[in-house]
UniProtKB/TrEMBL annotation:
The keyword Disulfide bond applies. The lineage of its organism: Eukaryota, Metazoa, Chordata, Craniata, Vertebrata. SUPFAM superfamilies: E set domains. Monomer. Interacts with AZGP1. Keywords: Disulfide bond, Secreted, Signal. Belongs to the PIP family. It comes from the Eukaryota. It comes from Rangifer tarandus platyrhynchus. Its main location: secreted. This is Prolactin-induced protein.
Amino acid sequence: MHALQLLFKTSPAALLLGLCLTLWTVPTQGQIQNVISANLTTSQIDNSTGYVITLAVSNLISQCIVVKNTLEVSDTVIFSYGNFRFTSCLCGVSTRRFFWEIEAPENGIITGKAQVVSEENICPPGVNISTPVYEIVITRDVIITL
């Protein structure tokens, strides 16, 4: 009760100053460094229902990272050669492209994901790998229309 009486006697300016100092000194949570970026594109093969899907993943930091790349599609999309999951080592500020070939006789949605993971034996021996304590998933949706 005594604490509440002191609180009501304190000026509003002092309370506001205390609140600001508390918020300013608390470590911020949820700040994520941009480690990778991704771009998902489609290009039609001639005038057919076939498409080449390209997922370009860029490393935005100077350290090596391991990136797992996947493609998720709606039921109307068929993979011509299989839905491969690519895991690769990206060192330095660089970009790597991953390709899938699909058949889409009807409209469909494609989601490409690039995810920083901690996996062994992907980068060459002796390369230091940056293993972030967080995971970044970048998703792009592309609607295929005929």
